[in-house]
């Protein structure tokens, strides 16, 4: 089906005699209309007709165009455009960058277009010609899998492009060299499993002898599947694609974005500068490898140059020196689609061994995370718990650990491959060992079985017998039949004790009244002091915001604009991990809850050192110390 034909402008033929026009049409038809316009010899014939009759070549081409549509319903300009696209595609695949540039320049002049006009038309044609096939969820799962594939479990996803930026001297290259060496050797990186495979280092930022020395320090040998391409430039993208088509590669390091683009005439601030990044992202997606591109930071701590670089990749990490004396490095995850959650992660750097040791999330320096993580691991490995999936909420209640801490440590255990997780609805279930085949798929976990105050793992409240052979997972619930779960969509699942005759609405009202009546340092308990859930945030508690907490401008003490990211100076809500380090550290200090706002979904806290008031989502804070509670 030919698109609607738009007749060309006919100014040039207005002076032609009718007879002359007929003669031109006759000669074109006798030479074979389609052939005349489709090949170089035919073009030469049209030019010869024009010269012999003293008519501009453009006029003869216009006559041929109109004649083709009238006689054959063919738009010859469309055929010419298709031919141009085909020629550009072939030229783009040439390995010699200089010859490629020469051919493209010649082709654009042949079509009487500028180079940018021709390439713009070509790029839009590729988008138009791309096949868009909608998929059902089952087709999507079959084609791409259901779960995220990892190159380094929990840190570096497979099939994506990552941008790692930082100022000079932060050891960006050394950090990724260590990751590359672990992948090539198949050894865990900082305790996290890797998917072993070939590694490519596209190095254009340092001399080859420096690269050799650094990799030798990491004990890389010729037997390891690691290859270096010194002096690589983005113009060699066709060779890279050809290599990936023949060799399965797990990890590609590009060092650096600036050095590999040194031959371009495009400004770093232009959107077009991000085109090679889009090409790399396409290669990563099609070949299932992880591509890490090193870049430099600007004065604000963001990736330098056009914002299109940030938008063209799946992950953006910023690496900085947090302590010059100790050499501590800080990775700030600014953007993620499938990897580790945004936050700040600490690493100790040893320059003598070029090694980095993960120390945990920034702000958790005083927590006993290692022993708590081991406590969770040992509990899941007990005989009665192996092969049984548990929600994070279940583990929090069983082990009397803050729910946010449990979620964080379960992620670390999963990322290290120590525990497994399955998804049920919107939540994850964690377990050690394989689930038995006879295990009931409809087993009710914590939130299911507590929705009804009379249902306890297939038995009624107070029934000493256990049906289906399963014991209650939550000791508090098993021992106290007067407990129920009040669901709060914005505050996860919180246990509240109340009289069984009391309605949920009445209980909620009573709790709000209690908050208003009591002084902040002596809060009244709700019905039963012995069974108050320590995870319910109340006025007077001392809390610490999470590293990924979002600060709300309304109700908070004003923050100096120098501490705010340029793009969010007027925003109403701002993630604290995007603020300056001084303000980030202050907001992460212990603060006392002075008010519960809204529908119990926000909390106003006061810093115990500076007196600063800040408003956060209630899910974004962890309880550091509970207020003194006395029965009225």
Characterise this structure.
- It is a single chain.
- The chain is an alpha+beta fold.
- The chain has four domains: 11-127, no CATH class; 148-361, Rossmann fold, CATH 3.40.50; 369-481, Winged helix-like DNA-binding domain superfamily/Winged helix DNA-binding domain (Arc Repressor Mutant, subunit A); 529-629, Roll (SH3 type barrels).
- Strands 5-4-6-7-3-8-9-10-11 form a nine-stranded mixed beta sheet.
- Helix 1 (18-31) crosses helix 4, helix 5 (76-92) packs antiparallel against helix 6 and helix 14 (369-381) packs across helix 16.
Question: How are the secondary structure elements laid out?
Answer:
Blueprint: H1 18-31, H2 33-38, H3 40-53, H4 57-72, H5 76-92, H6 97-110, H7 115-129, H8 137-144, E1 150-152, E2 156-157, E3 161-166, H9 172-185, E4 198-203, H10 208-217, E5 226-230, H11 237-246, E6 249-255, H12 275-287, E7 290-296, H13 307-311, E8 315-323, E9 328-335, E10 344-350, E11 355-361, H14 369-381, H15 392-399, H16 403-415, E12 420-424, E13 427-431, H17 446-451, E14 455-456, E15 459-460, H18 475-479, E16 483-487, E17 493-497, H19 504-517, E18 522-523, E19 542-545, E20 550-552, E21 573-575, H20 581-587, E22 591-597, E23 602-607, E24 613-617, E25 621-625, E26 628-629
Parallel strand pairs: 3-7, 3-8, 4-5, 4-6, 6-7, 18-26
Antiparallel strand pairs: 1-2, 8-9, 9-10, 10-11, 12-13, 14-15, 16-17, 19-22, 19-25, 20-21, 20-24, 22-23, 23-24
Helix pairs in contact: 1-3, 1-4, 3-4, 5-6, 11-12, 14-16, 15-16
GO molecular function, one term: DNA binding
Family: Belongs to the BlaI transcriptional regulatory family.
InterPro entries: BlaI_family, P-loop_NTPase, WH-like_DNA-bd_sf, WH_DNA-bd_sf
